[in-house]
């Protein structure tokens, strides 16, 4: 099912069925009826069952987007669950008379069916009474009480249908909307989806204002010129009405889904709002230029607030408007070129979800939010999104100004560079502001050469405050891209504060900025801006858009040059959602038409290329911005980077859990760690809303290569050792006996009803991670200090507690494989390793012998495995003193481990058996030809 809202063809009349009545009534308590409606043999509606206790009729609203089709009805009678069907003859929609009643009969059936329709003639008859109800609606939307007054935004839809009466369907639309209004008016609370749709109707208010301000002499011509847009808006308002109608009452005529297996789509709201904005733009594009010019002139002369610069009755001509902003351009000298660039935007059809959401937000006047941060890591496509956003806003006449920071521009640190451009652009788009700002300069010429604070106060803050009550047809939006490129931290915080203040000075202005989540911006935004909204680009899956881009740019190359079949797929995978990587890779490959295959292979094998060079430069610049040339700070940063790399490669942790893991081992101060993680924001990606990892694997390649990262180089074994020590410290501290408080050994783990809840409460993520991965970290970077920590661990009861936790988690196999790895490790340079290896080997044999019982019921680790281990078991002998209540075998116990480690049942006779050369696997063959591979 399409997620787009349906739109009727304006060449057809949408027909509305409002009821199905059957006579005589059903008085049989054993009998019930249902029915199906068909249009041109296609099922359009399933009518629910009706028994003898209900009136024999179905009511609601059902749209049919054609006027020349046949409607047929199949009645189903069920007596004691035995059904019989009656197929009534069809009637043609175009033949429905003025009464709207279509009576159909079937000779062999005892019932007469009346299908009731809302016809234009009926609408004409009912309209005066309904317009009277509309005129009596006294409530208005109040932004300070959005929950209680949001329903009054629906008046914009009713007003549009009233203004569009020259269109043949407008009165029908008005009556459909009135049905929905009557339901809305009864609601004490509206759900969020309906609130969002009502909020989107603000753009209909814009259209209503434009139509209302038109001169009567040209109104008919202008309406006819915009006929298609008006009819499309009427059809969309009908669809919105039906959607809201269905949410608040039982519509027995609800349309049958196109695909019964598909659930109701949840993004109707976004689709409706997006379509409203598209039709708003279409309307203004088609509206008579002469009328638009007259409307703008009326706005300029009648909607300006009183002030010293202009008497409210003084006419304003176009030349004066131009003079105002030209004067500002001359005096403030903005960048040339400035503003957005269409060629730098997103490829058509990509990033639609995030763009639609942001555009809808800009015109959502019911919301108190007027400030938005579009946050994303390096190369996520923030700038391309900003260019496309500006283009869309400009087409809607909603772009007040835009500014794009240029990387490495030495002037970026000067706030005047930004605000001079914003002042000039806002003046171009808002004549009232241009007039006030120009008057301010004429009154105080030194504003053009003053420092930032004075210039902002005189040319931004005061002029906007004077225009607070300026009526605006739509919200205007300022877009600033790449704020993090402002190299002076103090300057960008000052800029951030002023941009936020701009967004709060007047109700018709919103501000959007983009930046990487650098530490100072993150901290200041979250603590200071209550009316702010954050859009995280990484939450929008870019993979389909990246694939579309790569296929569009390289599809023909792949065919002409006969690339490997998986070439395009590999590029899409390696991009990892980072548009910049895809753009650089595509550009590099396309530049050589003779050697595209070799360049493709170079990119896929991650060899040195312009792609790696560009990212290396980005990473170096980002890390240099964090470095304050103090060795201890640099060491802390690199240690934190190493920990994140090592942990995220296995199982990413959330920030609090990573902090706990590192802090328990006293590896770093908490305050320093928090600041470092914030500083690494441009490179860190939060997955599932919490878990962090570096956003692209190219960073690992960069930071672990001394030739590429230089002073920031981290050796792989260096960043593995610290997490190993942290894991051992966490386990030593937090592991304990019966950690989940199991009351009995008489049940399997799988039969403990709340085991999952107990584990989540008692075994924190950092401890889970430590139990699962400490061996892998140690194996990657063994050293003397870690060996001493392991010796302490395996000779203490923490060894048993570790096995206990893995049993509860269902991962005893992790303990088995981990101990096996440790057994195979040779460390001749560490003298203690020989003895530790002996303990590890015995612990492995202990687990192997009692694997099933420990994995099945955790308490039996202590009451069975520890109790019945052979008397020569080093593990049992060392652990038993820690658990004095363990039962002892008085006689008949084993002295040594049984040579048979494990017995395995097979459902069939084994015909063949083969063991792998390393002894870690064996494969069994069965009579039916099947094979089974076992892990020894």
From TrEMBL:
Signal peptide: none annotated. It comes from Rhizoctonia solani. Residues 288-307 have a biased composition (Polar residues). Residues 349-515 form the Nephrocystin 3-like N-terminal domain. InterPro entries: NPHP3-like_N, P-loop_NTPase, WD40/YVTN_repeat-like_dom_sf, WD40_repeat_dom_sf, WD40_rpt. Residues 310-320 have a biased composition (Basic and acidic residues). Keywords: Repeat, WD repeat. This is Nephrocystin 3-like N-terminal domain-containing protein. WD repeats lie at residues 903-936. It holds the Pfam family NPHP3_N. It comes from the Eukaryota. Residues 288-320 are annotated as: Disordered.
């Amino acid at each position: 099912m399409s997620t787009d809202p349906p739109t009727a063809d304006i060449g057809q009349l949408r027909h509305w069925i409002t009821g199905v009545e059957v006579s005589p009534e059903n008085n049989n308590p054993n009998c019930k009826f249902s029915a199906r409606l068909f249009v041109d043999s296609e099922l359009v509606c399933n009518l629910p069952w009706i028994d003898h206790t209900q009136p024999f009729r179905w009511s609601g609203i059902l749209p049919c987007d054609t006027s020349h089709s046949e409607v047929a009805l199949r009645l189903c009678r069920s007596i004691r669950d035995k059904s019989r069907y009656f197929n009534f003859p069809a009637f043609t929609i175009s033949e429905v008379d003025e009464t709207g009643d279509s009576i159909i009969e079937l000779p062999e059936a005892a019932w007469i069916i009346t299908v009731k329709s809302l016809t234009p003639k009926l609408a004409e008859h009912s309209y005066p009474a309904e317009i009277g109800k509309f005129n009596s609606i006294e409530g208005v939307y109040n932004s300070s009480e959005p929950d209680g007054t949001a329903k009054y935004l629906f008046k914009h839809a009713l007003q549009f249908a009233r203004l569009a009466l020259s269109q043949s369907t407008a009165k029908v639309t008005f009556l459909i909307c009135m049905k929905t209004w009557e339901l809305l008016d009864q609601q004490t609370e509206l759900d969020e989806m309906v609130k969002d749709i009502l909020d989107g109707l603000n753009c209909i208010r814009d259209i209503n204002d434009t139509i209302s301000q038109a001169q009567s002499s040209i109104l008919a011509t202008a309406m006819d010129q915009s006929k298609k847009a008006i009819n499309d808006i009427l059809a969309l308002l009908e669809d919105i009405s039906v959607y809201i109608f269905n949410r608040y009452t039982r519509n027995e005529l609800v349309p049958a889904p196109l695909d019964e297996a598909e659930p109701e789509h949840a993004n109707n709201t976004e689709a409706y709002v997006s379509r409203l904005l598209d039709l708003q733009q279409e309307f203004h594009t088609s509206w008579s230029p002469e009328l638009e010019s007259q409307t703008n002139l009326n706005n300029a002369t009648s909607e300006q607030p009183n002030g010293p610069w202009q008497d409210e009755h003084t006419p304003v001509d176009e030349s004066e408007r131009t003079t105002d902003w030209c004067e500002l351009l001359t005096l403030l000298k903005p960048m040339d070129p400035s503003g957005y660039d269409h060629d730098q935007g997103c490829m058509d059809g990509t990033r639609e979800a995030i763009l639609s959401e942001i555009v809808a937000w800009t015109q959502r006047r019911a919301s108190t939010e007027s400030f938005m941060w579009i946050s994303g890591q390096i190369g996520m496509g923030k700038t391309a999104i900003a260019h496309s956003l500006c283009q869309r806003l400009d087409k809607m006449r909603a772009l007040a100004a835009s500014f794009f920071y240029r990387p490495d521009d030495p002037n970026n640190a000067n706030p005047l560079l930004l605000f001079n451009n914003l002042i000039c652009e806002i003046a171009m788009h808002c004549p009232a502001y241009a007039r006030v700002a120009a008057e301010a300069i004429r009154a105080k010429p030194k504003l053009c050469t003053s420092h930032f604070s004075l210039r902002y106060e005189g040319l931004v803050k005061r002029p906007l405050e004077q225009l607070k009550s300026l009526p605006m047809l739509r919200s205007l939006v300022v877009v600033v891209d790449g704020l993090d490129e402002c190299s002076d931290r103090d300057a960008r915080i000052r800029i951030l504060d002023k941009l936020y203040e701009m967004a709060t000075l007047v109700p018709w202005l919103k501000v959007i900025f983009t930046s990487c989540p650098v530490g100072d911006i993150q901290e200041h935004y979250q603590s200071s801006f209550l009316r702010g909204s954050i859009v995280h680009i990484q939450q929008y899956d870019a993979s389909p858009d990246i694939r579309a881009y790569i296929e569009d740019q390289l599809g023909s190359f792949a065919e002409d040059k006969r690339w490997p079949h998986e070439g395009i797929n590999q590029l899409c995978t390696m991009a990892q959602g980072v548009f910049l990587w895809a753009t650089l890779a595509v550009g590099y490959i396309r530049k050589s038409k003779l050697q595209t295959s070799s360049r493709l292979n170079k990119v896929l094998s991650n060899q040195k290329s312009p792609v790696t060079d560009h990212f290396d430069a980005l990473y170096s610049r980002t890390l240099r911005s964090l470095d304050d040339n103090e060795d201890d700070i640099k060491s802390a940063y690199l240690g934190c980077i190493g920990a994140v790399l090592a942990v995220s490669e296995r199982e990413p942790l959330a920030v609090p859990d990573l902090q706990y893991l590192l802090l328990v081992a006293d590896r770093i101060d908490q305050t320093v760690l928090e600041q470092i993680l914030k500083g690494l924001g441009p490179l860190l990606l939060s997955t599932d809303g919490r878990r962090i990892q570096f956003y692209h694997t190219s960073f690992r390649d960069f930071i672990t290569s001394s030739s590429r990262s230089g002073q920031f180089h981290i050796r792989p074994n260096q960043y593995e050792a610290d997490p190993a020590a942290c894991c051992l410290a966490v386990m030593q501290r937090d592991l304990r006996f019966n950690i989940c408080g199991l009351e009995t050994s008489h049940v399997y783990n799988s039969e403990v009803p709340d085991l999952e809840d107990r584990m989540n409460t008692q075994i924190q993520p950092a401890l889970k991670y430590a139990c699962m991965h400490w061996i892998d970290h140690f194996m990657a970077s063994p050293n003397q200090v870690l060996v001493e920590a392991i010796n302490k661990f395996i000779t203490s009861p923490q060894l048993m507690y570790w096995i206990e936790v893995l049993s509860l988690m269902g991962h005893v196999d992790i303990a088995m494989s981990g101990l096996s790895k440790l057994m195979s490790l040779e460390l001749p340079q560490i003298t203690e390793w020989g003895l530790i290896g002996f303990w590890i080997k015995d612990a492995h044999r202990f687990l192997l012998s009692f694997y099933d019982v420990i994995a099945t019921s955790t308490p039996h680790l202590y009451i069975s495995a520890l109790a019945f281990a052979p008397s020569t078991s080093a593990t049992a002998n060392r652990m038993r003193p820690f658990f004095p209540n363990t039962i002892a075998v008085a006689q008949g116990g084993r002295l040594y481990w049984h040579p048979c480690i494990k017995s395995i049942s097979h459902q069939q006779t084994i015909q063949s058996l083969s063991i792998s050369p390393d002894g870690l696997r064996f494969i069994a063959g069965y009579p039916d030809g099947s094979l089974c591979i076992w892990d020894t």
